[in-house]
Amino acid sequence: MKTIPVKATKREAFGKKAAKAVRREGLIPCTLCGNGETVCFSVDPREIKSLIYTPNSYIIEFDFEGKIEKAVLREAQFHPVREEILHLDFYRVADGKPVSIAIPVRLTGNAEGVKVGGKLTLSARKLTVSALVENLPDEIVVDVTELGVGKTIFVGDLHFENLRFITPATAAVCAVRVTRASRGADAAAAK
Questions:
Q1: Which of 32, 62, 75, 120 could staple 8 via S-S, CB 3.0–4.6 A?
Q2: Tens digits of per-residue pLDDT, 131-183?
Q3: Among 152, 158, 165, 77, which residue's Cα sits nearest to residue 121?
Q4: pTM
Q5: What domains sit in the chain, N to C, each tagged with a CATH number?
């Protein structure tokens, strides 16, 4: 999985007033939790932009005046009107411990059901998985070549080495839906 280096500045003041003061300076207040320790800090929005406005998931390497901490994004809070980032929560990554993170799904192949007039729909853009950091893929690639009309691929159908799915096994990943065109083709073939 790709990593993004980010410079971070620890902050001593906590609470609503301190967070507002950080935002007035043009920075984003953040927290880093995990391993029984919580660190409050702030980051420049320009450094974190490539992490927030993308469908991809990344491991973040925070640089606290020379001390490197690895983390994953847990939650991003946005202003309801201005779409500006209000607060970010990160979870610390420990060596040898599995991390749960949402990874984007990419479909490959030309589905059999699409060839006869069906419509391929992607139901889950991201799936939550758990694995060690070194085993995390950049994306989950699902081959849809054998998928017929009216058929669905569920999370339980996917198998990847060194990867455990947190998303329920009954959740649909993608399906080929029946369209009017495919129904018409079936009716014409039946006559």
A1: 62
A2: 888 888 889 999 998 888 888 999 999 988 888 999 999 999 999 988 776 66
A3: 152
A4: 0.76
A5: 3-94 (2.40.240.10), 100-190 (2.170.120.20)
